[in-house]
Specification:
Layout lengths: L7 H27 L2 H22 L5 H19 L1 H17 L22 H9 L6 H12 L4 H8 L3 H18 L11 H20 L10 H17 L4 H14 L25 H15 L6 H14 L8 H14 L3 H15 L1 H10 L10 H13 L3 H14 L3 H18 L1
Helix pairs in contact: 1-2, 1-3, 1-5, 2-3, 5-6, 5-9, 6-8, 6-9, 7-8, 9-10, 9-11, 10-11, 11-12, 11-13, 12-13, 13-14, 14-15, 15-16, 16-17, 17-18, 18-19
Pfam family, one: Sigma70_r4_2
InterPro entries: DUF6596, RNA_pol_sigma-70_dom, RNA_pol_sigma70_r2, RNA_pol_sigma70_r4_t2, RNA_pol_sigma_r2, RNA_pol_sigma_r3/r4-like, TPR-like_helical_dom_sf, WH-like_DNA-bd_sf
GO molecular function: DNA binding; sigma factor activity
């Protein structure tokens, strides 16, 4: 790449920051233009490589995201000119897409943001719905969307679904192969197709938010940019689909959880557990907005999973402290949630709530019943919860063993620091 200037390291940091923020929009815009995800990924990588070469010499442009998009488009055109067979195949896909819908308006300014007057006024959201095509298996299309369009890494997607990283990679490859073989066009779904695809899109948004709320790895506990992007897209969906109660439920859930963001870490970035948080730092207007959405989500028919989860979050936010939280109601809501979407994580959270309602022994018995669940073996909150309950029961050597296991599995520095503190306290008392 040639000799770099002294500003190369800061420029590399700038490229990384821009790419992390804009990757999803960049890929979505390129896929919408060229109709091929593999091509979009390849030319995106080319554009980043070009930025690393040119920005140290020329400086970071005023609109770095637009610069990357323009560069990637030029690389894509160059590739298509060199590969006529490839271009012919893409032309066929474009014809199929045009038969299904009118051509999108020409992109006039190289901006990465969608047309605010369209039915889906966001390129990324359009591609989320596109990848929720019913011809793709549920787990494949969600993995593809999270990995390629939402910008999550393979380990982050694996954590979201408690599966090995190799499984995620296989799902992405399988989804791409299906798109090619079935000639699934990258087009905006018709209005009558949206409800069928909505659950997959909601799952994607919640997975993005979850990674923002509790990062899989790194120096920070929270990735606020991801959480806020998921909320932004959730607001768009709420405006577009006001009658969909699960949209209201998910948006309410995200707002009620995100409202605690300022209290979840200390000034040094250290993790602050729920019972130690300064609830005066919680965002009360956001909580009120979330509570109104819970009402909308639970009114007019049977509750959906996101509405129930939002109701649980609202009970936490309404309490003055941990002890005054309505734990019986939370347990009852977890019973409903487990009936709607049984999962080991729901069972874990219910066990913790039972421990708060009935005591640590009752909660530990439920956690022990989950000991054979393979998806929890690499999930550090399970081991940490066991450590907390064993500590409350005075079973300190067992608590220390559980904390050590959680420490090995935890992904972020703040989580590891918190677990080391708890482990140190247990070892001191046990000694």
């Amino acid at each position: 790449m040639g000799e770099r200037t002294a500003d190369a390291v800061p420029v590399e940091t700038a490229v990384e920051a821009v790419f992390r923020e804009e990757r999803g929009r960049l890929l979505a815009a390129l896929v919408r233009r060229f109709g091929d995800l593999d091509l979009a990924e390849e030319v995106t990588s080319d554009a980043v490589e070009a930025a690393l070469t040119r920005w140290p010499v020329e400086g970071v442009p005023d609109r770095p995201g637009a610069w990357l998009l323009t560069t990637a488009r030029r690389r894509a055109v160059d590739r298509l000119r060199r590969d006529q067979a490839y271009a012919a195949r893409l032309a066929l896909m474009a014809v199929e897409a045009e038969r299904a819908e009118p051509a999108p308006p020409a992109d006039a300014g190289g901006d990465l943001h969608g047309d605010p007057h369209g039915d889906l006024p966001d390129d990324r959201l359009q591609l989320f719905f596109t990848c929720a095509h019913p011809a793709l298996a549920d787990e494949d299309r969600v993995a593809l969307t999270l990995r390629c369009l939402a910008g999550l890494t393979t380990p982050e997607v694996a954590r979201a679904f408690l599966v090995p990283q190799g499984t995620v990679a296989q799902r992405v490859v399988r989804a791409k192969k299906k798109i090619r073989q079935a000639r699934i066009p990258f087009r905006v779904p018709e209005a009558d197709e949206l409800p069928e695809r909505l659950p997959g899109v909601l799952q994607v948004l919640y997975s993005i938010f979850t990674e923002g709320y509790a990062a899989s790895s790194g120096a920070r506990l929270q990735r606020l940019d991801l959480a806020e992007e998921a909320i932004r897209l959730g607001r768009i969906l709420r405006r577009l689909l006001p009658a969909e109660r699960e949209v209201a439920g998910l948006l309410g859930l995200m707002l009620l959880i995100h409202a605690r963001r300022a209290a979840r870490t200390g000034p040094d970035g250290a993790l602050v557990l729920l019972d130690e948080q300064d609830r005066g730092l919680w965002d009360r207007p956001m909580i009120e907005e979330g509570r109104d959405l819970v009402v909308a989500a639970l009114t007019g028919g049977p509750a959906g999973p996101y509405g129930v989860e939002a109701a649980i979050a609202a009970l936490h936010d309404e309490a003055d402290d941990l002890a005054s939280t309505d734990w019986p109601q939370i347990v009852a809501l977890y019973d409903v949630l487990h009936a709607l979407t049984p999962s080991p994580v729901v069972a874990l959270n219910r066990a913790v709530a039972v421990a708060m309602r009935d005591g640590p022994e009752a909660g530990l018995a439920l956690l022990d019943e989950l000991a054979g669940e393979p998806r929890l073996r690499s999930y550090h909150p399970y081991a940490a919860a066991r450590g907390d309950l064993l500590c409350r029961l005075g079973r300190l050597p067992e608590a220390a063993a559980a904390y050590r296991q959680a420490l090995e599995l935890a992904g972020t520095d703040p989580e590891r620091a918190s677990l080391r503190n708890r482990l140190g306290a247990v070892e001191t008392n046990a000694g």
